[in-house]
Amino acid sequence: MNDHTSHDSQHQGQKPVKRREMSRRQFLSYTLGGAGAFMGAGMLVPMVRFAVDPVLQPKAKADWVKVVEEAQVTTTPKSFKFKVLQTDGWYESEPELEAWIAKDKAGNVFALNPTCKHLGCTVNWNGSPEFKDEYYCPCHGAHYTADGKHLAVASAPLDEYEVKVEQGFVYLGQLGPNKRV
């Protein structure tokens, strides 16, 4: 017997081993696909960076905005509208905002944001005859005290603006959580 027949008789129960080779067509497909993906990523990365870069920039604190003369502010909250310069990425706008400004019993000026903490509707002072001397939200019946404390429906108090009084004028700054309640 020759060498091949004796070798075959030892491995009769096993299947012959197939060698997997890459064809020219597969090699070209993989090479062109990889090169195309590399070039596509090279074009995509700057676009993603352009879109994400404004989000990565540190947020600046809001500038102070002159809103009203201090003489016009009383212990009864009044609504005052004001404009702020807003920059969203590369887009600048001047939206008109609103604040309810009043003085507390000690004579300190404070300002509340009129956005209801329940679902974002706008609250009004004495907006309902049922809830006298309270902020009332007409959407779902939430109401708040003069200091912005939530009494029903809403889960948090009204947000408060930073306030400073200079040379007889009330200036509003950054909007934040209510520190009065």
Describe the protein in words.
The protein has 181 residues and is α+β, with helices and mostly antiparallel strands. Helices cover 23% and strands 29% of the residues. The chain is built from two helices and twelve strands, in the order ααββββββββββββ. It has helices at residues 3-10, 24-56; strands at 65-69, 78-83, 86-88, 91-93, 96-103, 109-112, 124-125, 135-136, 143-144, 150-152, 160-166, 169-176. Strands 1-12-11-6-5-2 form a six-stranded antiparallel β-sheet, with no helix packed on it. Strands 7-8-9-10 form a four-stranded antiparallel β-sheet, with no helix packed on it. It starts with a helix and ends in a 5-residue tail after the last strand. 17% of the residues are buried.
Task: Please render the helix and strand layout as text.
Elements: H1 3-10, H2 24-56, E1 65-69, E2 78-83, E3 86-88, E4 91-93, E5 96-103, E6 109-112, E7 124-125, E8 135-136, E9 143-144, E10 150-152, E11 160-166, E12 169-176
Antiparallel strand pairs: 1-12, 2-5, 3-4, 5-6, 6-11, 7-8, 8-9, 9-10, 11-12
